[in-house]
Design brief:
This protein has 312 residues and is an alpha+beta fold. The chain folds into 2 domains: 157 residues, Ribosomal Protein S5, domain 2 (2-Layer Sandwich); 127 residues, 2-Layer Sandwich (Alpha-Beta Plaits). Strands 1, 2, 3, 4, 5, 6, 8 and 12 form an 8-stranded mixed beta sheet that branches. A 4-stranded antiparallel beta sheet has the order 9-10-7-11. Helix 1 links the parallel strand 3 and strand 4. The longest helix has 16 residues. The protein is globular, with a radius of gyration of 19 Å. 49% of the residues are buried. The structure holds 4-diphosphocytidyl-2-C-methyl-D-erythritol and adenosine-5'-triphosphate.
Length: 312
């Protein structure tokens, strides 16, 4: 057992949300997961996660979505801290405090982001100095999206989404996110995708990355990227929440270059030309009242990284 105390000061890690620019879903595997080919982009909606040495393993959550997040051992950040401690043999409990700003159950990987941030924060707090590759391996044990939130930027995900490869992406993209009142559970959306395919007798094929999307990302031009946005879970998310179809139509009517359901939804992501268009679309969508909240963001941004401690 190690009891590492090289840096006893609390450590705060900032972690982004993600949007899937492309989410191609293959057939279900024997373990219940679906083979994916996806292109993730990290965007600057973020949570800040602070870990501090404590007498016991505890967790607290603040921010507008705090009520929707468990603070017991089911919190993905708590699971991340306990997993790393068990794997490494650390015996110093931590308090994990999450300043939550990423929508909950919104298809933007909020819980996964907190897990990724906790791994990076505990690594620093306990003085482990693990490599990014090692952290990504632990991350994959916690969820399919978690390794990407450590890496950030723009990356291709394969396997169940946990195997990452870098993508050459130029420039910055402006996004507007329409966030719903009530989240959609990811397993239900995958199950609905399977059900719709069965009903249509559509056979799922092994997904392959779309080369036109890679070319679009190298161009740095949002007009070229917009037509390539695609999500195989979109139909399932709309089947469970028909109003998402109307949100998508409104965003396009108000001038978005492209729109897509983010991951398993129900957040809808719109790609726009520049910051002015982002402000205009945010105002227009907010006025419709079709979403609980509308937020602008930019991607790509860095993955989970240590920031100076919060002064509360
Ligand atoms: C929808 C996405 O966010 C797109 O990036 C991810 O595929 C979901 O990733 P995640 O939330 O990290 O998901 P996990 O915690 O690994 O799995 C939650 C559940 O989602 C479903 N799931 C997830 C990933 C995958 N490749 N196939 C699946 O069928 C399974 O029902 C699984 O039990
Ligand atoms: N730290 C956490 N933050 C948010 N939700 C959490 C956390 N830990 C556990 N949960 C639970 O996980 C559920 C899914 O939350 P999350 O915000 O990760 O969904 P999501 O963004 O749709 O996930 P993904 O995009 O990875 O599929 C929540 O309803 C909540 O009960």
């Amino acid at each position: 057992m190690t009891s590492a105390h090289s840096d006893p000061s609390p450590v705060t890690v900032r972690v982004p949300a993600k949007v899937n620019l492309e989410l191609l879903v293959g057939p279900p595997r024997e373990d219940g997961f679906h083979t994916l080919s996806t292109v993730y982009q990290a965007v600057n909606l973020h949570d800040d996660v602070t870990v501090a040495l404590d007498d016991d393993w505890t967790c607290s959550v603040t921010g507008p979505y705090a009520d929707a997040v468990p603070t017991d051992s089911t919190n993905l950040a708590m699971r991340a801290a306990r997993l790393l401690a068990d794997e490494i043999g650390v015996d110093t409990p931590v308090h994990v405090s999450i300043a939550k700003s990423i929508p909950v159950a919104g298809g933007m990987a909020g819980g996964s982001a907190d897990a990724a941030a906790t791994l990076v924060a505990c690594d620093r707090l306990w003085g482990l100095a693990l490599s990014t590759e090692e952290l990504e391996e632990y991350a994959a044990e916690l969820g399919s999206d978690v390794p990407f939130l450590i890496r950030g930027g723009t990356a291709v995900g394969s396997g169940r989404g946990e195997r990452l490869a870098p993508v050459l992406a130029r420039g910055s993209y402006h996004w507007v996110f329409a966030i719903s009142d009530i989240g959609l559970p990811t397993p239900e959306v995958y199950a609905e995708c399977d059900r719709l395919r069965d009903r249509a007798k559509a056979k799922a094929v092994q997904p392959e990355p779309n080369s036109e999307l890679m070319v679009a990302l190298r161009s740095g031009d949002p007009h070229v990227l917009a037509p390539q946005l695609t999500n195989d879970l979109q139909e399932a998310a709309i089947s469970l929440r028909p109003e998402l179809g109307e949100v998508l139509a409104s965003g396009m009517e108000f001038g978005a270059l492209g729109g897509v359901v983010s991951g398993s939804g129900p957040t809808v992501a719109f790609l726009v030309e520049d910051v002015e268009s982002a402000i205009d679309l945010t105002v227009a969508l907010t006025a419709t009242g079709a979403a609980r909240e509308v937020r602008k963001a930019i991607g790509p941004v860095h993955g989970a990284h240590v920031i100076p401690a919060r002064v509360d």
